[in-house]
Amino acid sequence: MDLIYTNSKMEDLGVLQDYELDLAFGADENNLECKVQAGSHCCESGSLLYMEGTEYGGIIDSVEVDTEQQTVVYSGRTWHGILSGHVIQPDIGFDYYVAEGDANAIIADIIARLGLEDIFTVSAEASDIEINKYKFARYTDAYSGICAMLADFDGKLKMEHRVDTIVLSAVWRMDFSKDEEW
């Protein structure tokens, strides 16, 4: 699968060749590290790395050169890490952020509140996951908060890089243990 890189303006520049990529996301880690040979160095801080049509990717926050090994290491945050770096705050005068309605509409509201529309787009289609007066934990990060909300209603967060954006959507969780094929 191609690992595409951009400049800091999020314009596609090319496909990385001969790289080592380590992505981690979930409850503990939400970071990425990509190592290339020094002669293949092509990214800068603020560049994106991604695999089209998948949730694999993120933003480069630092570039380190290892002259002894003749390598360059790009480090940064996955899409999950970008969300986890922003806090969901309640409206002024309220102790909690409370949400109700279609899950995708709620996620869109959170992305707008956090000012992340330049990176993330939320699916405009209804998710069919109806959220009923969900009270977010106080000052939770966006990734944990969205995942907790969806889990309470038997859903999960889906991320997918499409064209020039990362599309977020709420989808139903699947129990593969009940599928005879698995």
Please outline the helices and strands.
Blueprint: E1 4-6, E2 12-15, E3 19-24, E4 31-37, E5 48-50, E6 57-66, E7 71-78, H1 79-84, E8 98-102, H2 103-114, E9 120-122, E10 130-135, H3 142-152, E11 155-162, E12 165-172
Parallel strand pairs: 9-12
Antiparallel strand pairs: 1-2, 1-5, 3-4, 4-7, 5-6, 6-7, 8-10, 11-12
Structural Rg: 18 Å
Query: Assembly type of the shown chains?
Result: single chain
- The chain-level mean pLDDT equals 93
| Strand count | 12
Order of helices and strands: EEEEEEEHEHEEHEE
Span from first to last CA? Answer: 25 Å
Describe the structure.
Helices cover 16% and strands 39% of the residues. By secondary structure, it is an alpha+beta fold. The strands form three sheets. Strands 2-1-5-6-7-4-3 form a seven-stranded antiparallel beta sheet. It is globular, with a radius of gyration of 18 Å. The relative contact order is 0.15.
Quick take:
By secondary structure, the protein is an alpha+beta fold.
